Please model this.
Amino acid sequence: KEALLNIEDLYVHFKVYGGFLQVLNGVNFRVFSGEKVGLVGETGCGKTTTMKTVMRILPQPPGVIRGGRVFFRGQDVLKMREPEVEVLRRKHVSMIFQDPTASLNPVFTVGEQMLEVVRFSRGTNLDDSSHREMAIRALQEVALPDPERILASYPLQLSGGMRQRVCIAMALVSHKELLIADEPGTSLDVTIQDQILRLIHRLAEERNMAVILISHSLGVIREWTDRVYVMYAGCMIEEAGTRELFAEPLHPYTQALMKCVPKLTGTGVFEGIPGRIPDYFDPPSGCRFHPRCPQAFERCLKEKPPFYEVKDGHRVACFLFGGKSDA
Ligand code: SF4
Model:
């Protein structure tokens, strides 16, 4: 079966004074229709950069795509011309951010912005009142009270939670196939964050919409996804069904992450494992995790580990699972 989104061996660098930061180091990632997939890793590991590249909103420069391909429904996103990218963003894929203010234009009312989205995605053969009806229905679906008032408001007149819901409503009004939610609601309080995640989950189920949930919280990933990718320092290092990953994490980094989850508080936010995320300017050779890995051996310093399929759908980029003997 063809993936809805397929990222193949993506390399992204950032140009900085004196050289390049090697931020993405061969990322592979796939999402199928209607699937809820988690992307987890420490802050700064490249989760957002990966998805910004997919949306073609990575600033270039300083970003430079050094290699790899991104397919949406078989079409190469990185080769699309601007009008095609516009269609992709308006009709097929939405991305919502931790800070919802970033995706809304402060100088237009919510109504003006939503109606533009509806017009673009549903065509101009419907009249304005039908467009308005659709916008109102989408706002009702995300449980926003008084949709007329919301349409007349400017984004900054709404609370953070309401703005986040407006962004989701905009994704819904155009019947997107994929929603990329980058730490949704993390900037809001925990109860509102939970409501937002619940809402995304419900709508995804009802509409068979695929969701990529980016989070640094294992608790969030565990609760809301079917499958997970773990990222470390610009590399995908493990991929498995959510239940399988939590029952049996294989990569030494994933294992360390799981140990860091404060069990008593149950927040699922990890505080960090010994050592530091590597310097992207001069990253470690071979497996980027080797300076922090208690099980590193010689080969790990020399070569980048490929993915080894350990069980059906459980893959891990670590020499302990296939590359030990031929070192
Ligand atoms: Fe550790 Fe080597 Fe596996 Fe990397 S490849 S995680 S350094 S054992």
Notes: The domain at 5-321 is CATH 3.40.50.300 (Rossmann fold). The chain has a mean pLDDT of 87.
